[in-house]
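Tutorial handout. Part one gives the primary structure; part two gives the three-dimensional structure as tokens.
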Amino acid sequence: MSILEQKRSAQEDIENLEKAIVKALFLKSQSPKYAVLADFMIKEFLEEIQSKSAKALKIYQDEDGFRKNEIQFLEGCREAEDATGNKSLDVWTNFYEKLNEIRDYHDRFTPYGTPAENHDDNWYFLHALDDRSKIPKFSGPEGNGRFVDLHNLYIDFINLKKLNKNNPRLRITLDYLTYLSTFDQFHTIPISCKDNQYKKYLENLLDYLKYFFNRTQPLLNISQLEDQHRRDFQARWESRSIKGWEKLPKKHELKTDPLFCLPCNKLFTNKNVYKAHKTGAKHRKAAENIAELIDRTDESEEIKHYQEVASLECFISRLRETLGDTVEDTMNNIRKKQTRTAEELAAQIYESDEEEEPFSLPVEELKKKSENKEKEESSSSEDERPAYNPLNLPIGYDGKPIPYWLYKLQGLNVEYKCEICGNYSYWGRRAFERHFQEWRHAYGMRCLRIPNTMHFREVTKIDEAITLHKKLIEDHKLDLFRADEEEEFEDSQGNVMSKKKFTDLKRQGLA
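Part two.
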């Protein structure tokens, strides 16, 4: 294959891989159970894009000069003895030479009858997880990456000896749900309880969280979180700004601490334990060699142990913040299970056994799904064909014409025309009565400048509506009160008369 063809092929593959990423994101949005699967597919696509991009970049750099020579060859440059002197003719000569080379290559190395494989975006999408070793595996309580499973670590935590000695009711008061909400609150645990067994528990907890993180969030790099944690932790440890470790003495304050034993190079967290230690044989023997230890400047073994424990706690807290939504979903799922009866739990387990694992979907099943989708679309298109309706009957709720007897019973064969609506036809008495409050009739009345009130019910002619409107206006004028004509007065004898008559009589002195 020529250099230019390799470059074109790499760029085409990059474009198809980007389209495949879009398909994976669409798969992720369809259902939560496909979220982790889609992330692993996207990770494969990104790694393939990086390799293709590096290959295309190397061709663009053209360190060996092959790309430049091939471009010159396609422009018509030939050796002096083979050149015809006409560059436009040499272009076509070089083109057919390259075409014959490609045909000879495919004739020699392509099996007869083998169709050319087209690696488009659909091919990359279907073959993204052909390597089953890259598909993550989850336990039952983890729910395909939606929940965390800390049951074993919960048992290890409640069985810590020093912690149980400090809090005898720990096993009774701390249930699994409470442990999930407080397992990162290490500042509540006394420093005296953080021994080697506690450190081993933290290491197991961190290993699980890192393993779960790599299985559920493949697009994030946990090594970057570790590097950032190391940089931040050292400064916080030196300043004793880590929550729960503020009272631990610093390096230069260690020898002046009242609970630090210089001969034994050991820090005690309890005053009574320190007094009992000074009476022991081990302390007396170490005190004899005090001259050898007087100039020691390194930290004690206990301080180094506590520093390692604090580093583990800080990194676990950082991962807990990153996996916060997953832990919250786990707690909600446990609360939901606690509200169910035994029958409902058994039915849920039976249904979960019948469900297909989303991470074991082969290419053939994905193809079957696409084929089934095409069949459903074809069947739906057949169902959408118009039903046989020679009498032009109205369509019912089931998509079929209503019976003819119901058509006659409802009077749908009777036509009502409304001149105000623009001679629009209404079939059936119900539709005719309902149209007086619809937009078409209201618009027609507005054009006539007539209010669409109940007085104009059953009026469909424009002349009748105008005549009725004028009559209503005249009747309204008669009902109006006129102060000059309707005002009444009463004389001294109790006779009631109009204002004009009363005024005339009063001028004559008769009222």
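Part three, for discussion. The chain has four domains: 3-133, 151-254+299-352, 404-480, 481-511. The first strand starts at residue 260 and ends at 261.
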